[in-house]
Amino acid sequence: MPVVSYRAMELITILNRCHHFRGFVYQHARFSQDNKGIEVSVRSRKGSAAVCSRCHKAAPGYDQLAERRYKFIPFWGFLVFLVYAMRRVDCLRCEAVVVEEVPWDNGKHQLTNAYMLFLARVARAGRRQEAGRPLRHLQFRHGAVLLLILFMADVDFLFLCPVGTHV
Questions:
Q1: What confidence tens digit (pLDDT) does each residue in 90-134 have?
Q2: Cα-trace Rg, the chain
Q3: Least crowded by CB within 10 Å, which of 44, 94, 95, 146?
Q4: Same domain, 24 and 86
Q5: In the beta sheet, which residues pair with residue 40?
Q6: Are residues 91 and 160 in the same domain?
Q7: By residue range, what is the domain housing residue 80?
Q8: Closest CA to 37 of 82, 99, 103, 90
Q9: Quick one: average pLDDT of 154-158?
């Protein structure tokens, strides 16, 4: 009887199949220091040009900022964070040095677009138990983003929290 070997499906493979970002590569995944989350390192693909966040055109690089963590869709009960060091570009069209545009983020949010859409879909389900569970770990500083998500989902957000509490 032949020996069959199975290769374990890796998180990076799943991310590449389900949520691929053009111009960027998932480098590796590891548990966070507190073992409550998974950090996925992202880097720009070699040879890919950075995109100016103002004019949305390719621009030459200037330097690189410190790594930032972006909340991504939870996976197997673990919080998932994309970890990326943003590049700054010297845009000749805008005549300014600005932070690059990345496909998973709009502006200065710490939540990825995919995570905001995930929360909106869960909230749209309209059931208190399902909608409240993914939202309970959001901290107060995400309140404006949460209201935007719920507005996009077109749901009544007053049922999520008792009066006097915050998300």
A1: 999 999 999 999 988 887 778 888 888 888 887 776 554 544 555
A2: 19
A3: 95
A4: yes
A5: 29, 82
A6: no
A7: 1-103
A8: 82
A9: 45
Using CB atoms within 10 Å of the CB of residue 103, give its burial: 0 to 12 exposed, 13 to 18 middle, 19+ buried: middle
| Cβ–Cβ < 8 Å for 12, 28 | yes
- Residues 92, 116, single domain; the answer is no
68 shares a domain with 133: no
- The last residue of one of the domains, among 69, 103, 137, is 103
User: Rounded to an integer, what distance in angstroms lies between the CA atom of residue 89 and that of residue 87?
Assistant: 6
Report the half-sphere exposure of 140 (CA within 13 A, side-chain side).
3
Largest CA distance in the chain: 68
Q: Are residues 68 and 129 in the same domain?
A: no
- Token readout for 36 is 């409550």
Do residue 77 and residue 57 come from a single domain? Answer: yes
For the entire predicted model, the pTM comes to 0.69
Confidence of residue 160 (pLDDT cuts 50, 70, 90): very low
Split into its structural domains, the chain has a count of 2
Using alpha carbons, list the distances in angstroms from residue 45 to 50, 70, 79, 98, 99: 10, 19, 25, 20, 17
